[in-house]
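User: You have something folded?
Assistant:
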Amino acid sequence: MSDKKSIVFLGVDVDLFKTCFFQKEEQLSSSKTVSFGREREEEQWDSFELIILDDESATASADLSETLQKPSVRSVVFQDTELDSSLLSTLRQFYDSGGLVIFFGIYGEFSDPTTLSQQFDFPEAWKFSAYTDHEYEMTNTAVDYIGYGVKEQQYAKCNLLKVPIQDRWMVAKPLPLHQYIEEHAGGLEGEAPDEEWKSAAKTAKAGYANYCDGLYEQCPLAVHMNKKGGRLAYLGFVNGDGKIPYIVRRLVTNKKYY
C-alpha cells in the first residue's frame, strides 16, 4: 500500500477539510478529479490525486466501488457515520482488504466513535471522552508510522476519545510533576515552604499518577489496525494548528516525516 497516493473524499466538506489542514488556499475545479499540492520552506509536498464523491448521489456506492478498484487509491476520508448499507459495505471491504479509512470528526458528534467501532466490528468499543484543549504527544506506534519529525503538538482544541491503548496514536501531554505541584500548592518565589504548602504539595504529588492516567485516555488521533493491515482512523482535530497539517498529511499519504 505504501506506493499508493490517491485520497478519496466521501461525503466530507472538502473546502472545510482544506481550510483546516492546508494553510494555502487551493483552487478546486468543477471536475470530479483534481490534483493539488502545497509548498513550504521545509519541504516540497508532492501532488496527490483528490477524488471527490457525493455520498448522497444515487450512484454513490457504484462510484465508490469503481474508484477503489484503481491501484492508486489507498485512503478514503469521510464524515458521515449514517451511510447507507451499500456504502458502508464498500468501505468495510476496502478496510478488510488492507485499505486506510479515515473519519473526519471535526464536529464531535458524541455517538460517532462508538458507531464507528461497531460498524467496523472492533473487539473493544471507542467512546467520546471530551472536547477541550491540551498539549499532545505522539505515541511510539504513531511515530513508527508517521516518522519522528513530529512528536508533539502545541495546545489545540480537539474532540477526544477513550480507546484501547493499542489504538492511541496521540495523547494529551501531562505537566511535569514540579509544575503540577505548583499548580496546586502555589509557587514559592524563593521562600521556604510553610506547613500549608507542604500539605498541598503532598496531596498533589499523591494524585499525580491518576492525573497522568486520565490524560493518557484523552486521544485526538486514534487508529485501529486489522489483521490484513487495514486501518480505521479517527481525526478529532477541529483546526489546523501547529503540526496538525503534517500529521494528517503523513497519515493519509503513508509518507514518513523526518
